[in-house]
Model the fold of this input.
Amino acid sequence: MDKHSITGLILIAILMGLFVWISQPSEERIAAQRKYQDSIRQVELARQIAEAQQMQQPITGDSLSTIDIQTTPTAIDSMQNLRFDVFSSSAEGEEEFTQLENELLALTFSNKGGRISKAQLKKYQTSESLPVVLFDGEDETVYGFNLVTATNRIINTNELFFTPIVIDSLSITMRLSVSDDQYLDFVYSMQPDSYMLRFEIKAHNLADVLTHDFNYLDMNWNGKIRQQEKGRKFEERYTQLFYKFMADDVESLSETSDAMATPSGRIKWVAFKDQFFSSVFIADEEFSSAGLKSTVIPSGNYLKEYHCDMKVGFDPSGSKPTGMRCYLGPNHFATLQKYDEGVKDDRQRLELERLVPLGSSLFRWINRWLVIPMFNFFGSFISNYGVIILLMTIVVKLIIFPLTYKSYMSSAKMRVLRPQVEAISAKYPGQDKAMERQKATMDLYSRAGASPMSGCLPMLLQMPVLIALFMFFPAAIELRHQSFLWADDLSTYDAIFSWDAYIPLITPYFGNHISLFCLLMTAVNIVFTKFNAEMSNTGQQQMPGMKYIMYLMPVMLLIWFNEYASGLTYYYLISTLFSVLQTIAFRQVINEEKLLAKLEANKAKKRKPSGFMAKLADMQKKQQELARQQAKTNAKRRR
Done:
């Protein structure tokens, strides 16, 4: 390259450098460009907010983060003001906590959302001897209310920071301020020695701040239910979302699967219920437009997740507060029932005791008026609940003793007539003479004054009491962590042997343990079945395999009840033992020779057939006539 070419290149480089230097923007021009970019970002944010409002969805912090452009503090403030409108001053802060407590309940309040963050029951403990905590933190329970500003901004109270104002040791106000003279208060008031909490939402001069037709609050409540007890599978059966209609019945979502409901009527309260504890929001007036959802959590520390959306009346002017109550406590029948004391208006009755699953209709009536008063009576002077269950068993056996005696006498009559029944069977052998054999047997029973049905009826009359007790014991929180003999906790199973391995067909239905009370109950039931089989042998032919089916039932009880509360299996154990002892006593006391003589004397009397026996005889005549006609028809066809 010659000297002239090199000189030319140098001159070109100098000219390009001068051009770049001259074209560089000034500081004023850079600032103007930055301001222009910020304006573009604000327009984009405004567009997102408008779209979200059209879809009835608030813009959250996640939406802001989707604009991945560096902004100046001024632009950030502008976006914050645009997003939270008049509440922008409460959009930022650090979460702080304030505690209130009485003799029963310790509550922690968060300034973020002005909500209850943690609820601890001081009188109840976990299996590790720690106080029971219903929920702790927004990951477990959170509730909030949607506010709509005059510029149609939708803001949830969970996104805002309140200022705590402690009134006294049992009351606190969480204040959301717009200005010194415009604010929204969440007022919480505890009562001494109570699980019930008063909650009021009070507006102060917010009529011009919120939209003009804003007369209700959209309330959303989410919660995860902790596993509190040892038996997860058993606890899941009693974990449900409950709700009560105004002046009407209490309903619930499914406890076994995912479920949703949109009740069309007015709702008085909604409860997130565990086996022994509940969190309940109770409206002073009503909740409306409720949407409820329950989701099963198959494993982990939680059993289910609940979601509730509903509306509650609201006055922005502040002349009338929105009132409700929160119950955070045990599912204890007497405790829940007392909240209706003195309430004469049926429309205002809470019926929170329906959270205790005592069965429906007749079974609940028996538990309410017989079992629970008896349980409480013995519990007033006896501290050992194993002894209380024993005494209750004796009382129940005494109450149903007349029915048990009548049932035994019926089987005794059938037993002493067995030789005569066997003689009838020998006289009319074979399947072709089954009708004659059955007619002669029924005629024998009718003349002797015995009836196969008289023994079944007393047993059926006992069933409501047995079913009521089946519902009561697993629901009795009094049995929780109460030990008896080898059982550490009468509210759950008493495992004498456990294993960790998952065994197909066994673990899902039987569990990974063997309960001793359940095992003993099964053994005693097998003995009792043998007793009954011997005493109820009337000499008549039985269905093939019936003998084995009778013994299969106690084995099935072992599978069904292995994960049930040991208090229940203990009750069935001693109840069946008493039944065996009663049967032995009856056998010793009742003279079957005299009973047979009395039945023989009855034969000599002219007896009018009972309604049942008359109907049975009439049916037999019709069947015999039908059989004769069928035989004639078959004979004609053969010809």
